[in-house]
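Sat 14:20. Reprocessing the chain from the morning session after the first attempt stalled halfway. Input below, unchanged.
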Amino acid sequence: MNRLRIALIVLLAMGLAVPACAAEEGSVRLGAQAGYGGTVLYTRDMPIIVSLENQGADFSGTVSVDVYASEMDFDRYEIPIQLAAGAAKRMVLPVTPGYRQEEFRVELRDAAGNAVASTVARTTRGVGQNALLVGTLSSRQQQLAYWGEESEDIWNAQGNILPWVCVSLDAQNFPAEARLLDAFQILVLDGFDARTLTDAQQQTLRGWLLDGGICVVSGGAQAALGYPFFEEYTGVAPGALSEKTGVLEALLAFAQAGENEEDASEPASAWPSVVSSVSEQQKAIAGQQQLPAGWGKVPEGETAPEDAAQADALMVNELPGAQAEGNLLFCPAEDGLVVLTSYELGARAVANAAEMPGLWRKLLRAGAEEAYTAAETSAQGVWESNQYGWNEALSSLPVENAHRGWPLAALLALYLLLAGIVLYLVLKRMDKREWMWLGVPVLAVLAALGVLKTGEHLGFDRPMAATGLEIVYQADGEADANLYTVLSSPETGEFTVASEPGVRLLPYGDDSAYYYYSEGNEEIAPTRLRYRYILSETPAVAYPGGSSWSARHLRMEDGRAGWGQLEGSAWMEEDGLHMEITNRTPGELRDVIVYSDLGFAHVPSIAQGETANLLLRRADGQEEEQIADWLRGLEESSVYDGSLTEDLAAYEGVLLPASVQAGGFQSDAILSAALGGALQASPQPRDPGQVDLSAALGGALQGQNPQNRQWELACTRAYRTVGQSFDVYGAPFAVRVLCRVEGVDWPQLSLNGQEIARASRLCVAAAELTYAPIGPDGYAYYPAGEVNARLLDMEEAFDPENPRFAPESQDAAGYYELPYEPAFLFDLGARVEPQRLYVAAQGYYDVLPIASLYNFASGEWDVFELPDIDLAGAAAAPYVSAQGYICVRYAQAEEAEDWLSSGTGSVNKPALVFEGRVAE
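Finished this time. Tokens:
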């Protein structure tokens, strides 16, 4: 018997000592690298590259890395692994550092959570959030360092410092995930064959390029390597080689020309050559090239700088099919751009030239301004500003339960009946009424147990989720979507939320939503775990424990969904503003609001695939007088109130005579009235699981159903996402749509492996209709902001046939001192016979400027008594040129001896309202 016991004990000990998936200590070798060769990107996605080599038995576990998010918080990124005996593996963990961190500790744990191995990935350089990233791929990385060197040209279009930073890439660390490559704005391929990348890397590169990336590809002796991968976008193959020095001469001359807008609009003869015409094959593949006038040949008669004359000759290849030899070729690739160079970007003569820093900023601004501006915007990043607005909206979104709660109501009614009338009558009949004190508590205990048992089946204690989807439909056919979710659960411990493949989960909290990095930050070691990101085929994130039913916030990037398109256009005719909306979204459009600073209209619904036609009709005489009174009251009030909104709500579908001076007040009131009008038109009551319009903005309609509050807030957020252009004086005119979309394919969420069934959803869509100032029948209407004022250069003799724009600014912005007598030009783009011409500008310092219009018939500036000019019919005709130009100039009413210190006044850029018909 004792022997049997001993044998059983030994067998049991052996079973406990040999786990199924264990590894001997030190049997798995672990290595890690942070970022790109030690370069760490803060506030952007970057890789932690991990290498594993298993020298022991089969192993299963996790690899994790802690990443600093703030001074106090850190995030943990985990990825599960399975590693066979003798196997080696390389994996990439995409992480987003938010605070200074010079070492990233990577740990390997077994299935039981025990640490098996660890290592430290050290950094060499940190790149902050305000920088344009240039990824360089070349065998001569050092030669391309000039792409990231600072120069005098480090300012972006908005006037902010935006340095370029070079990050060296190669075939090993080139991102295979789109979220990693999206951190870069420009890729430079100098003698690098992109066909050597893996299939996944090539697919990511193509997607990045077509989605707005810029690829600069070298030629010369390296063209045979760089050109072939991009030939499907450029139609260009490597050609013959020749030795030339004129290429470098042109580059240096351009680099030394200095940067100003005059150079950008009127290229000097010394600018580098660009192929200005391409073959039919190239046109079919890449599209017609839109290049600045004057680019097409290498400058003649120029003398090379002394250092350039002694430099190595550059290998220049002839671009086949082109009608002229060139140095650069700009080829659009959907939303992206491929720039081919005829010379080697890493050639010693180019790399050693002191003028190279800043050169490519000038080249891209001159040859591809739109693509470069988009790259600058991407480099600066967009802070997530809508998440908190959605928190408020979703917190009031009702969650419909599968059961209405009638079993609990019936149980409560039964308890009241038994504990009241029945128990009293029974005890009275038994003459035992003194037992009442015992019977009532017993029935209460039984009722409580019944409530607990019933509640388990009704599911009132199950997790809840309220999700809002915001879709912004772009005019180019693209759709940007953001999902916001508020989660709540009775659990107090850590819980894990998971979704479907293709959905990225991005939790956020009230105190750490924004990443922050500064080189001046002192490196510290945060101690509070914020979130655990579980990187697997099914994305998941673990929240730390908290109080029962506390709210957790989650944003989702859904890469798997197709949102369709909301198409529309608007134009003016004699009877008013016409609008057309076509629903190509996944479902029905509900409560469609179309609004602008000219009025609003409401459509209850537009079925999928249908087109709705709307009209803002011209007001009659009485309506115009009433609206004019309303506008005067609006201009006199600093903040619009509910009465103004209620008055405006009566004019749904009416074209308002927009006042330029009204600014943002009028547009806000119009949106408020549009929301309120749609609310009143919606059928009531609605199912509790549905949502409807709520009180209008600004509290104009109080006392409405609080369940509708979230729709108002969601509309407000979507309105701000599209852009509150009305709130900026003289900003571009727009006709916008707000609506609700039914039938969207929502991503599924689960909590701790259980589907969140108690869910409520709200989808808000926003779009901007394409406005045509000239309608199909030739009727023209330019509302305020449709044509931007351009600042004229009046230092030289004014030529009305060929006006010169001021060197420092083409499009006017801000305020201009009156003593300088600023002049502006409006370009209608066509000869239009005017019916009405209205020009207005805001002034400051209580000084009214004197306004003058250029008379193209007399060649003189005609002075008007008031700064606001309003002309009709024949009186306006002399002030519109055959090219469609309108010129206005402002001056101070009285001269001051010391105007610099006296504050004699300034004027904002003027705004134009023009109405007429295109001349035959």
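The radius of gyration is 34 Å.
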